[in-house]
C-alpha cells in the first residue's frame, strides 16, 4: 500500500538530513504499522551509513533485519543485515543472539561454525571486552563439539575462550 503523504514527507526530510536521529525515530514510528516493513528496512540500511557512531549504525541494521524477519524470500538479506550489525559493533549482543537463532533454526551448522569463527576473530581484533571474546569462542566451541563432532576444534575454541578471560584479568589488574 502507498505511504501516507505525511509519512512520505518525513522520509523525504530524512533523506535530506540523515544526521537527524530524532527524525529517524519519527519515521520508524510512522512506519511501524507493519504494512511498510520492506521500505523501512531499506531506509534503515541506508541510514546506517550516516549514523553518528557504530553502535547506532549497528542498532539500525538490526532493526532493518527485524523488518524482514519471517518474510518469504528475505532470509539471506536478513542474515546479511544481522552480520553487518555485528561487524559495525561486535559488542551488539542482541545481534549476536539473533544470528545464532537464525543459523540454528536453519540447521546449517557448517555455516554457523564459519560465521562464529569469523565473529570470534573479529571481536578479538576489535579489542572487544574479554567476556564477549570468551563468549564468542565458547559459542564456537559448543557448535563444533555438539553439532559437528569436531572435538579438537571445540577444545581449540575453548582454549581461546580461556585465554581471552586470562588476558581480561591481566587488563583488570593493570
Explain the overall architecture.
The protein is an all-alpha fold. Helix content is 76%, strand content 0%. It is built from nine helices and no strands. The chain has helices at residues 5-16, 21-30, 37-47, 54-68, 75-88, 93-105, 109-125, 130-147, 151-173. α5 (75-88) packs antiparallel against α6 and α8 (130-147) runs antiparallel to α9 (151-173). The longest helix is centred in the last third of the chain and has 23 residues, at 151-173. It is elongated. The termini are far apart. The mean pLDDT is 88.
Tags for this entry?
single chain, 174 residues, mainly alpha, 9 helices, 76% helix, elongated
Give a short summary of the structure.
The protein is mainly α and 174 residues long. It has 9 helices and no strands.
- Structural class, by secondary structure, is mainly alpha
What spatial form do the alpha-carbon principal axes imply? elongated
* Portion in strands: under 5%
Total number of helices: 9
Low-confidence stretches: none
Order of helices and strands: HHHHHHHHH
Report the major sheet.
Answer: none
What is the residue-averaged pLDDT? 88
Helix content: over 70%
Radius of gyration: 19 Å
| Beta strand count | 0
Amino acid at each position: 500500500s502507498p505511504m501516507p503523504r505525511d509519512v512520505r514527507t518525513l522520509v523525504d526530510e530524512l533523506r535530506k538530513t540523515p544526521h537527524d536521529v530524532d527524525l529517524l525515530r519519527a519515521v520508524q514510528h510512522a512506519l511501524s504499522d507493519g504494512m511498510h516493513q520492506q521500505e523501512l528496512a531499506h531506509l534503515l540500511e541506508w541510514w546506517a551509513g550516516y549514523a553518528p557512531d557504530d553502535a547506532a549504525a549497528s542498532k539500525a541494521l538490526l532493526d532493518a533485519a527485524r523488518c524482514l524477519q519471517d518474510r518469504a524470500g528475505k532470509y539471506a538479506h536478513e542474515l546479511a543485515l544481522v552480520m553487518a550489525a555485528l561487524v559495525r559493533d561486535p559488542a551488539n549482543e542482541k545481534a549476536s543472539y539473533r544470528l545464532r537463532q537464525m543459523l540454528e533454526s536453519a540447521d546449517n551448522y557448517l555455516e554457523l561454525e564459519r560465521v562464529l569463527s569469523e565473529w570470534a576473530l573479529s571481536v578479538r581484533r576489535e579489542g572487544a571486552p574479554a567476556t564477549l571474546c570468551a563468549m564468542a569462542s565458547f559459542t564456537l566451541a559448543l557448535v563444533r563439539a555438539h553439532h559437528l563432532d569436531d572435538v579438537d576444534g571445540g577444545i581449540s575454541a575453548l582454549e581461546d575462550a580461556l585465554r581471552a578471560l586470562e588476558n581480561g584479568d591481566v587488563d583488570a589488574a593493570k
